[in-house]
Design a protein that fits this description.
The protein is α/β, with parallel strands linked by helices. It has helices spanning 6-17, 24-31, 35-47, 111-114, 121-130, 169-176, 192-203, 249-254, 275-279, 281-291, 293-296, 302-310, 314-338, 354-366, 386-403, and strands at 51-54, 69-72, 78-84, 88-95, 100-103, 107-108, 139-146, 150-151, 154-155, 187-191, 212-217, 221-227, 230-232, 342-346, 375-378. The protein has three domains: 6-57 and 66-75, Orthogonal Bundle (Arc Repressor Mutant, subunit A); 78-196 and 387-403, Nucleotidyltransferase, domain 5 (2-Layer Sandwich), CATH 3.30.420; 207-378, Nucleotidyltransferase, domain 5, CATH 3.30.420. Strand 4 (88-95) and strand 5 (100-103) form a beta hairpin. Bound molecules: zinc ion.
Length: 404
């Protein structure tokens, strides 16, 4: 079967939402696509046997007035996407064509401390998610993210997420599904930043961009890379461990104030200057506690730091600024290597908006990246939890199609 395009998904979604059928004219009007595009998609779907056509009886005096009705040959079902960060989990339900029907609220958790045991939460997430929309037997695929490099449904390099080492996450998810769910459901496991890139490409600012990078700045720092329209995972599933590149001397020379680097060795690499240990949300929180234990001792939520910074707290602003400088310089090196069209910056720190984007732009300007016009976009602050779960939906749609 030919690969389905986004236009095809849109037409399939419209047909899935209108089981009584739609005419070609209806499809053109409701999709906003041109008639030639609609006709080409219909031909493709008919060739693949996915839709059929019924011609209504002619009414007197107005032959063929309503036009023939196009319908899906079978119910395409639904898919579930699950995003797990270090401290949260969120799930979404969509049609197999990728129309997102519902997202769960963001649940706080600790997947590092709890390890694979946290997969048991899935049972509580999926019930309410499907309610009123689909039954478990309508679900065609699940995709789930993990904040670690992934290969063969497991953590590719154990030191990056020790508590999950050796766990086959696909089997873990299958075991966690409640009674009544199909036992042979296709399940994909993917690195969370890779999912973020998939989400931005399908639903976000990277739509229709073939060469781009998605930088996720949350508890850790991750990267998803699209090259020639394909997600690049690397030879070992470990591409995009951007949090473990070394910060440059140029960046360190630009760091301001008394928030200096943390002396701890990186748990994964053993290095002292991994980007993640100096510029992630976790690092910002540690730097603030270190600089002023009296004020920041109980500060464990980056949301509070961002709120304080936006309200004018100088030390919080400085911590975010320094993170932006370090991240910006690291991105400049990345751009020299890959020359993408677009950089998308997301993750929880993107909620700081200008407090993060200004120093990143500053670093990129200083590194003269802007001179050849690579576009830089930031995920809007209200959507920072969406990139990865949307990507899980996009990945699950792919899986459902390949399994069909
Ligand atoms: Zn490291």
């Amino acid at each position: 079967m030919a690969p389905l395009t986004r236009n095809t998904d849109q037409i399939v979604d419209l047909l899935a939402s209108n089981p009584g059928g739609l005419t070609r004219k209806d499809l053109r009007e409701r999709s906003g696509l041109s008639m030639p595009t609609v006709l080409a998609v219909i031909e493709e779907l008919k060739r693949d046997g996915r839709i059929h056509e019924t011609t209504p009886p002619r009414t007197s005096g107005r032959p063929g007035r309503r036009g023939s009705q196009l319908m899906l040959s079978e119910a395409l079902g639904h898919v579930v996407g699950i995003d797990q960060g270090h401290h949260h989990v969120v799930a979404a339900l969509a049609t197999s064509g990728g129309h997102i029907l519902r997202r769960t609220p963001v649940h706080e958790t600790d997947i590092v401390g709890r390890g694979p045991q946290s997969l048991t939460d899935i049972a509580e997430l999926v019930g309410p998610l499907l309610k009123g929309h689909a039954s478990p037997t309508d679900v065609r695929a699940i995709a789930i993210g993990l904040p670690a490099p992934v290969r063969d449904a497991s953590v590719a390099l154990p030191q990056f997420l020790q508590s999950w080492a050796g766990t086959n996450v696909e089997e873990g998810v299958r075991a966690a599904l409640p009674n009544g769910w199909p036992r042979d459901l296709p399940i994909a496991v993917e690195n969370d930043a890779n999912l973020g890139a998939c989400g931005e490409r399908r639903y976000g600012v990277a739509r229709d961009v073939d060469d781009f990078v998605y930088v996720k700045v949350s508890s850790g720092i991750g990267l998803g890379v699209y090259l020639n329209g394909e997600l690049y995972r690397g030879a070992h599933g470990a591409a995009g461990e951007f949090g473990h590149v070394t910060t440059s001397a140029d960046a360190e020379n630009r760091i301001e104030g008394r928030l200096t680097k943390l002396p701890q060795e990186c748990r994964a690499c053993g290095k002292l200057n991994c980007l993640e240990n100096l510029a992630s949300c976790r690092a910002i929180l540690a730097q603030l506690r270190d600089a002023n234990p009296g004020t920041y001792r109980a500060t464990t939520d980056i949301g509070n730091v961002i709120d304080s910074a936006l309200a004018g707290d100088a030390l919080s602003r400085l911590a975010i600024h320094n993170a932006g400088i370090r991240i910006g310089y690291a991105i400049s090196d990345l751009l020299r290597v890959l020359d993408p069209q677009l950089v998308v910056v997301g993750g929880l720190l993107a909620r700081a908006e200008g407090l993060l984007s200004d120093p990143i732009h500053l670093a990129l300007d200083q590194a003269a990246v802007a001179t050849y016009g690579i576009q830089v976009e930031f995920v809007p602050k209200d959507l920072v939890y969406d990139s990865e779960v949307n990507g899980a939906i996009a990945r699950a749609c792919e899986l459902a199609r390949s399994a069909a």
